[in-house]
Write a structure and sequence with these properties.
Layout: E1 2-8, H1 13-20, E2 26-33, H2 40-46, E3 50-53, H3 62-74, E4 80-83, H4 92-97, E5 102-106, H5 118-125, E6 129-136, E7 146-153, H6 160-183, E8 187-189, E9 195-197, E10 212-213
The structure holds glycinamide ribonucleotide (GAR).
Glycinamide ribonucleotide binds at residues 8, 10-14, 84-85, 105-107, 142, 168, 171.
Length: 214
């Protein structure tokens, strides 16, 4: 059984999608928020998952918060840590502690639109396609080796809410997929910094490039 710890800051719909996917071989060991009022904590507790808060406001520095957060995470001895709408910039020390076992989802086709307000910025830029990216976390914000992406069209008449909803639907599909690959031992980050996804049918040594889902 692979232990998974999920970090959230709010609604937690991606966390919910991962929990609901009931991935064979995965145990969701804990859901941890940096905000006590995160709605997702209620869902986790109602599903018998340890729901904890490490409030960033209780710590004098980013380093102190990240150290407390890491201690709380590590008490669960996770194989994988999943950032699911966790809206904190993490220190390099934290990120390197979880190198190769820290995933994030971002609501754009990275490397386009890192940071905030991705849907608004996509509309302003006039892009014809938009989407979402699951990636391994590296010290640079919303950067890092890409695991899987999903593409959605930008339709005439779209506003920020309509586009966000179309992207979120895809997030709920690809994030459980990425976690499943990791739990099955098929997803890894190579020493060269490139993502490898071993296909179900390939020989043990056979690796394929990650698929792009349209
Ligand atoms: C998701 O759209 C996720 O991609 C985004 O926050 C939302 C969280 O929703 N994350 C980022 O912007 C990280 N840079 P959720 O709480 O319902 O999963």
């Amino acid at each position: 059984m692979k232990k998974v710890v999920i970090l959230i800051s709010g609604r937690g719909s991606n966390m919910e999608a991962i929990v609901r996917a009931q991935i064979p071989g995965a145990q969701i060991a804990a859901v941890i928020s940096n905000r006590p009022d995160a709605a997702g904590l209620g869902f986790a507790a109602a599903h018998g998952i340890a729901a904890q808060c490490v409030d960033h406001k209780d710590y004098p520095s980013r380093e102190a918060f990240d150290a407390a957060l890491a201690a709380t995470i590590d008490a669960h001895e996770p194989d994988l840590v999943v950032l699911a709408g966790f809206m904190r910039v993490l220190t390099d020390g934290f990120v390197s502690h979880y190198a190769g076992r820290l995933l994030n989802i971002h609501p754009s086709l990275l490397p386009s639109f890192p940071g905030l307000h991705t849907h608004r910025r996509a509309l302003e830029a006039g892009v014809r396609v938009h989407g979402t990216t699951v990636h391994f976390v590296t010290p640079t914000l919303d950067c890092g080796p890409i695991v899987i992406q999903a593409v959605v069209p930008v339709l005439p008449g779209d506003d920020e809410a309509a586009l966000a909803a179309r992207v979120l639907e895809q997030e709920h599909r690809i994030y459980p997929q990425a976690v499943r690959w990791f739990v099955e031992g098929r997803l890894s980050l190579g020493a060269d910094g490139r993502v490898q996804v071993r296909s179900e049918t390939a020989s043990p040594a056979g690796w394929t490039v990650p698929p792009v889902e349209a």
